[in-house]
Design goal:
Layout lengths: L5 E5 L2 E5 L3 H11 L2 H9 L8 H23 L8 H11 L1 H15 L13 H5 L1
Antiparallel strand pairs: 1-2
Helix pairs in contact: 1-3, 3-4
Length: 127
Amino acid sequence: MVDKIIYLEVEDGKFPMACTINTMEKIQNEYGSMGKWNDLVMKPKNGEPDIRALKFFFTASINEGIDIENKKLNKQREHISADEAGRIITEVGFSDAYKNMGTIISDSLPAETKGKNVKTTKSQMAQ
């Protein structure tokens, strides 16, 4: 994972988003797996995303971005709530929210996991 941050700009300011292993762990703990979460958000059965799952991702990724910035900049910015994440999504709009979500997830993966011919060797597994 790469500690990449993108920003959502709304009237109240800029909110950092980061998708790290910590973000993924929170999603797994809440939804059982990244795949189950993805199905709720990206492949909804009824044609609309699960709003709770969407807000969960934005809350977790923005709070992770805040934690990274707090550490790097020696700040003490407070975490946002799920309701604040909902207001941010509403202000940004669903289309841009989805675009930013896809960007931060894709940009956060190491380059070697993006190739279609990546294979794990026995020597890598033994390390």
